[in-house]
Amino acid sequence: MILSKGTKSSIWLGALTFLLFVFMLYFRAYIYAGMYIEPDAPYGISDIIEFLLGCLFLLLMAASVILAVALFIKGSVQSKKSGALLVVFCVVLFIAYSPLHNMAARLGG
User: Fold this and answer.
1) Sign of torsion, CA 49 52 58 59?
2) Integer CA distances (angstroms), 57 to 25, 27, 62, 77, in order
3) How many degrees, rounded to 5, is the angle at CA 37 between CA 33 and CA 40?
4) Lower CB density within 10 Å: C or N end of the chain?
5) Structure confidence by residue, pLDDT tens digits, 46-102
6) What residue spans define the domains of the chain?
7) CA 54 to CA 77: how far, in whole Å?
């Protein structure tokens, strides 16, 4: 089976988004609690890193949606299916993030 360019790019973008998602959960569970927070400070470097990871995650989600829209407009049937799957995958990750993040925080804390 030969994959089109759109399908390959949606697979790569989905994999990159998933890897960042897993790293964000790993960071929250195992690294976040061990980082230094200055006494009486409202946030520490770990909070800033988590914020930046969240921004990168949202950026990858936006890129996924933009790619999916482009594939819907100008792609082959196979690319349109992969674009739809990419959007569904990103929605599932977005919905699953909050409960999994809370679980990772309890695991690390």
Assistant:
1) negative
2) 12, 13, 9, 28
3) 130
4) N
5) 999 999 999 999 999 999 999 999 998 988 888 899 999 999 999 999 999 999 999
6) 5-35+42-108
7) 32
